[in-house]
Design goal:
By secondary structure, the protein is an alpha/beta fold. It has three domains: about 1-20 and about 145-235, Phosphohistidine domain (Glucose Oxidase, domain 1, 3-Layer(bba) Sandwich), CATH 3.50.30.10; about 35-140, PtsI, HPr-binding domain (Enzyme I, Chain A, domain 2, Orthogonal Bundle), CATH 1.10.274.10; about 265-535, Phosphoenolpyruvate-binding domains (TIM Barrel, Alpha-Beta Barrel), CATH 3.20.20. The protein contains 20 helices and 17 strands. The chain has helices at about 35-65, 65-80, 85-95, 100-115, 120-125, 125-140, 165-170, 190-195, 230-250, 280-285, 310-325, 360-365, 365-380, 395-415, 430-435, 440, 450-460, 480-495, 510-515, 530-535; strands at about 1-5, 5-10, 15-20, 155-160, 175-180, 200, 215-220, 225-230, 260, 265-275, 290-295, 325-330, 385-390, 425-430, 445-450, 495-500, 520-525. The protein has an eight-stranded mixed sheet with strand order 1-8-7-3-4-5-6-2. Strands 10-11-12-13-14-15-16-17 form an eight-stranded parallel β-barrel, surrounded by six helices. Strand 10, helix 10 (about 280-285) and strand 11 form a beta-alpha-beta unit. Helix 2 crosses helix 6. The protein is globular and about 80 Å long. The protein binds phosphoenolpyruvate and magnesium ion (MG).
């Protein structure tokens, strides 16, 4: 038996024959050409064919991967039109007198590399999209279009990496699971695999050798382990795990649509954390009673200029409409520290986590902040919205942020633009300062949501980005629990609700503690909701 360890990105257990997707190499030789204009026309014709293919794909994939995910193919179509992609291709054809295949491969690889070099996981994951588009155009140019369905029977499909288009087009009946040498957890490949319920493990590196093709294997997409020629003991263990999971899922499903009640009958709310419009579908599928944290920074990341008020409004409105009467807590911009966008031109800092980030940026750049606030208020006319400020440390910051929210409302009112008159305004408790003065903050806030990820970082002085000190990060540290208890007590004294939206909310080792503390809400990844509902009922 050979055991390989990768990074699990889509949970599930699968057993079958490994089949390597050996792609015949694309025709990317550097062929000289006679007539550059004709070659450019050949490139443009291939772009038109690619655009037609992408239109058809986005149409047919709607049901399989959902409307929002299918939008990826529209993004690919936009790349085809983008001058950042087309101009260098044309330039290479003209100046080097070489074939379009070579020019597309060269320009596409350079752009993909630029994405891969950006210090941001989201942007890194876009490199594969760039590769996907170039590959499509090269295949059209060379008449060498490849599909994934060249294997017989059901297999665990292995490759260097899978492009998002390939993953979306997989035949679920034939592909039991995906394993790859490379890949990124945030890539659309991983997102599609999760949406389609295909177990997937990435980042095996060269250990996932082509010699393993045809061998029997079993994998666990949760732990990221792949066993080739598995011993009977491992097969039994994983098959039992799969059966346990199936039974547990069946039993948890009984809680779907039911209210969340503690053992003593006290109502609690289980909300979802989301980071994009399409995540609202996952929140609903997970049976969330609302959205407790909508990380709005996704609107600002992965682009080269500020999103305008209208586009932000559209995104917030879509989420609010999808969630209907359920509350959606929109957290205002939390950029900086680990979430960087170049066009903000944030200063280089020694300690970005303690630097210019989140509410500090918003208070320093009122135009930017008020654009977002107006967009949220406009969207509030379409659902049950709440606003939440991140990284609050003082009453003064909260007052200034609320003042800007008031100005945003006044600006809309002056133009007769409708918005809801009663949008609750709350804060994240994610600094020890906020927890310690939570009695004062409670007087000026409508609710508290505890951001335990940052609260832990700042309380224990452990950089959440630094893996090498993770052993010093005791998330159950008494100091953190005391700050949570204090915040919750002060919220209740002032008649506010208090929830948790950091990762600790989903820590089942603390569920009873949180119930006993009297927390009113836990906002978690949607897949935890049914499990927590069952657990809370036992507390
Ligand atoms: C937190 O800090 O706990 C939180 C929810 O915010 P983020 O993880 O986005 O910083
Ligand atoms: Mg935070």
């Amino acid at each position: 038996m050979i055991t390989l360890q990768g990074k699990g990105v889509s949970a599930g257990i699968a057993r079958g024959r490994l089949s390597f997707l050996e792609r015949t190499s694309l025709s990317v030789e550097k062929r000289p050409i006679e007539n550059a204009d004709e070659e450019i026309e050949r490139f443009n014709a291939a772009r038109r064919t690619a655009a037609n293919q992408l239109d058809a794909l986005s149409e047919t994939m709607m049901d399989k991967i959902g409307e929002e995910n299918a939008l990826l193919f529209e993004i690919h179509r936009m790349i085809l039109e983008d001058t950042d992609f087309c101009d260098p291709v044309i330039e290479i054809i003209k100046t080097e007198n070489v074939c379009a295949e070579y020019a597309v491969n060269t320009a596409g690889s350079r752009l993909a590399q630029e994405f891969a070099d950006i210090d941001d996981d989201y942007m890194k994951a876009r490199a594969i999209d760039m590769y996907d588009v170039s590959k499509r155009v090269i295949e059209i140019l060379s008449g060498n279009e490849q599909t994934l369905d060249r294997h017989d029977g059901q297999v665990i499909l292995a490759a260097d990496d899978f492009t998002p288009s390939e993953t979306a087009q997989l035949d679920r009946e034939k592909v039991l699971a995906l394993v790859s040498r490379q890949g990124a957890a945030n890539s659309h490949t991983a997102i599609f695999a999760r949406t389609m319920g295909i177990p997937a493990i990435i980042s095996f590196g060269e250990f996932l050798s082509g010699d393993l093709s045809g061998k029997q294997a079993i994998l666990d997409g949760e732990t990221g382990a792949l066993y080739v020629d598995p011993e009977p003991e491992i097969i039994r263990e994983l098959e039992e795990k799969a059966e346990r999971q199936r039974r547990e899922k069946e039993s948890l499903e009984k809680g779907r649509g039911k209210p969340t009640l503690t053992g003593s009958g006290r109502p609690m709310k289980l909300f979802a954390n989301i980071g994009s419009v399409s995540d609202a579908d996952a929140a609903l599928a997970g049976d969330a009673e609302g959205v407790g944290l909508f990380r709005s920074e996704f609107l600002y990341l992965g682009r080269d200029s500020y999103p305008d008020e209208d586009s932000q409004y559209e995104s917030y409105r879509k989420v609010l409409e999808k969630m209907g009467e359920r509350q959606v807590v929109i957290r205002t911009l939390d950029i900086g520290a680990d979430k960087q966008a170049g066009y903000f031109r944030l200063p280089e800092e020694e300690n970005p986590a303690m630097g210019m980030r989140a509410i500090r940026i918003c208070l320093t750049r009122p135009d930017l902040f008020k654009t977002q606030l107006r967009a949220i208020y406009r969207a509030s006319a379409h659902g049950n919205a709440a606003i939440m400020f991140p990284m609050i440390c003082s009453v003064d910051e909260l007052r200034r942020a609320k003042e800007m929210a008031k100005e945003a409302r006044e600006e809309l009112a002056a133009k007769n633009i409708p918005f809801s008159a009663d949008v609750p305004v709350g804060i994240m408790i994610e600094t020890p300062a906020a927890a310690i003065i939570s009695d004062l903050l409670a007087k000026e806030s409508d609710f508290f949501s505890i951001g335990t990820n940052d609260l832990t970082q700042y309380t224990l002085a452990v950089d959440r980005q630094n893996d090498s000190i993770s052993s010093f990060c005791d998330t159950h540290h008494e100091a953190i629990l005391r700050l949570i208890r204090l915040s919750c007590e002060n919220a209740h004294k002032a008649g506010l609700w208090c929830g948790i939206c950091g990762s600790l909310g989903a820590d089942i080792g603390l569920t009873k503690t949180f119930v006993d503390m009297g927390l009113d809400e836990l906002s978690v990844e949607p897949s935890y909701i049914l499990k927590l509902r069952a657990l809370i009922a036992e507390c």
